[in-house]
Amino acid sequence: MAKKKHIFLIGFMGVGKSTISSELSRLSKRKEIDTDAQIIKEQKMTIPELFEKKGEAYFRNCETNLLERLKEKEEALIISCGGGMAMRKQNAALMKESGIVVWLTATPETILERVRENQDRPILKGNMNVEFIAELMEQRRKKYEAAADIIVRTDNRTVEEICREIMSQAVND
Ligand code: S3P
């Protein structure tokens, strides 16, 4: 029998990766891993602390290193990725080699609604406006697209609808 593949959830900050991940984990009975949470645990620092004390490049290396380790796991997992994970070509390749990559999308307006009260995202610090979000999203769009096997829209849809679509396309068991 073919080895079951991980499911990687990628996409912009605030697109709903964590929410979708926990519901998918429940439905598929697979364990979930949140790459940000895993890095926080291993590095014993929050994301803003990591960016401030070690720098963004260090954080990006932690992400790549984590993907390399996840690739070796036998058990198929639901993996919720930090919003910048697909920006490195190497990361996109690592994800493709070990799983199915699902790109969750939403409009900049929806994103702003979801992230505006949260202070834990260094990239958005001082940039909590639709214009910044729309521009960064546009800069990143081609890389998300290149990494994705499946694209799933999340605007005005329930968690259940979104998960059903992902399950039907990406869960091979
Ligand atoms: C980032 C997204 C964040 C986190 C870090 C950088 C990004 O994850 O990894 O703040 O560059 O888009 P979420 O998408 O879970 O907010």
Give a description of the structure.
It is built from eight helices and five strands. It has a five-stranded parallel beta sheet, sandwiched between helices. The mean pLDDT is 96. The protein is α/β, with parallel strands linked by helices and 173 residues long. The protein has a single domain (6-170), classed as P-loop containing nucleotide triphosphate hydrolases (Rossmann fold, 3-Layer(aba) Sandwich), CATH 3.40.50.300. The N and C termini lie close together (10 Å). The chain binds shikimate-3-phosphate (S3P). The site of shikimate-3-phosphate (S3P) has 10 residues, from loops.
Short description:
The protein has eight helices and five strands. With 173 residues, it is α/β, with parallel strands linked by helices. It has one domain: Rossmann fold.
What structural keywords apply?
173 residues, alpha/beta, Rossmann fold, five-stranded parallel β-sheet, 53% helix, 13% strand, binds shikimate-3-phosphate
